[in-house]
Amino acid sequence: MDRADVRGVPQGTLTLRGRVLAASNATFVGEIDHVRVVYKPISGERPLWDFPDGSLAGREVASAKVSDALGWRVVPPTVMGDGPHGPGMVQLWCEPDPEQDPVDLVAADAVPPDVCHVLDGLDGLDQPVALVHERSDALRRMAIFDVITNNSDRKGGHVLAMTDGHRFGVDHGLTFHTDPKLRTVLWGWAGERVPDDDLVSVARLVEALEGALGDELSHLVTSDEVAATVNRCRLLMERGVMPVPDGRWPAIPWPPF
Question: Does residue 102 fall inside a structural domain?
Answer without folding.
Answer: no
